[in-house]
Amino acid sequence: MIRSLLIANRGEIACRIMRTAQAMGIRTIAVYSDADARAKHVREADEAVWIGASPAPESYLRGEAIIAAAKSAKADAIHPGYGFLSENAAFAKAVSEAGLIWVGPKPETIEAMGLKDQAKAIAEEAGVPVLPGYRGEAQDAETLSKEADKIGYPLLIKAVAGGGGRGIRLVADKVSLASELESAIREAESAFGDGRVMLEKLVERPRHIEVQVFGDSHGNAVHLFERDCSLQRKRQKVIEEAPAPNMPEEVRAAMCEASVKLAKAVGYEGAGTVEFIVDGARPLALDTFWFLEMNTRLQVEHPVTEMVTGTDLVEWQLQVAAGEALPVKQDEITLLGHAIEARICAEDPAEDFRPGAGLIEEFGMLADTDVDWLRWEAGFESGDRVPAVYDSMIAKLVIWGQGREEAIERTVDTLSHLQLVGVPGNIGFLRRCAMADAFFEGTHHVNWIAEQGETLSQPPEEHELAGVLAVADIQLESQSDDPWGLQDGWRLNAATNLRAPVSVGETSDWVDPDILDVPEETPLALVTQLSSRRFAVTVGGDSALMTIPDYEAEAEALAGEDAVKAPMPGKVIALTAKVGDTVEKGQGVAVMEAMKMEHTLVAPRDGVVESIGAEIGAQVAEGLVLVALEAV
Which one of 53, 138, 467, 500 is CB 3.0 to 4.6 Å from 143, fit for a cystine? Predict the structure, then answer.
């Protein structure tokens, strides 16, 4: 019986595990680093324990600190989530030796499946189809070259201890083998401490299909059907779905049966995923799929399986870890409908998916979310800060439909109404992926995103135009009791001229709605007013911050205004003048950090600093007087 559970993870997966545990009446304990002291998973836990500095090797990868935290908080069990130490056999063993319950497979199972060459040998022995390749112990250049010739080019070099796309190199021909081997071995040694590699025949148009399996300590093992994870960039999954599109029943049965065979062969306990590489150049058939690897943990994309099978895999994990048998038998697990998961990341697709960090000003749905077909798994909310030291994924959107077409339509529509402002986001990119013909037809493959280039990563120009038009219309529709403040475009002895100023980034312009040409098919602009002059605008999932230029304030500053005010919400990171200092017009007096950028604020005129309105490190609101001047 588990009464108290420590979650050795962070972000959305920690929050998701807590939700089920708390519903089961289990007390939850979070762990956190310096960067996560005020994080959502810390706020939602019953108790939280600090485990170290922000970098993962000094906190979330410190097994001894996590076990010490569990003991100090009187936890019964540790759930590792995914990533970090979730597939670390030594950590799993240490947890058990400390007298705690490990929520996951046995350490020896993790170890057996953790080495790709060993896992493939076990799969082969269990009768699971395995891709042709070399998995031998000899690692000298001559042996590897001869084996590569036998396999044929192109081929892949893979780190034996690899994962997460690390230690993988594509070799197009014999000429490039030596340099690619050197590079793969170097990365494998750096990432995993193990430079051994294996060679594998390259499937040139691959699909990625995986099967969710579950076992218990009573010898039972079942599958919960398959997921398709073929929509990837740089070997990182983007959108996942269950079941796989265009899947014949006989292929599904064979793939799922092979996965259960492997689970039973290693005495699997808990949640696991058997991954297959599939030849996407041909229709799915019995001879088009091969075992890739087994992930001995809960997967990021597990919610799509839960949505189509009506299960809670975390609840199963906790029950099995406590020694209970699986709650259902194979014939009681059925498929219902179709589910899609989109990974929301703080990254900029237009800049080669550069990750971003900083304050989230607005994050969430701009539409009704109280529907049973939508599931929102988030590790962050408006007002949270995204640290720069961890993975960029901050949430997952999971959508269910009666069929795949309905699930896609709902996904596209919901992404259109999802807003992320303050840090870069990939929501518009996800929407464009889900709208693509190749995805709708199920003909996409692992390399498809890379082949599309900027078609998916760059927001259409009309999205920004639609946002600019919306902010201009808001200004022109506003009314004033002062006749001189009316926005009616009236001019003495001249034609009416309706225009409004709008700034996007560093660019400002006067906008005439009558001549701004926005295509009719452009999605509706959704606007959230952040302050009197700042707006978060979302068009087709692409979000931007737009402002109304304060020309009057600029004129006042030029005329000699006495105050230096915060131009937007942010953090004061430096004060370069103190009370009593004499300053000159244009001299820097304060530095703010806002929107991931530093902004130097200058004196509007010559004067003497009369007062300072904030301390270094303070979070300040827009309009706060930071430095007040008096006449010289």
Answer: 138
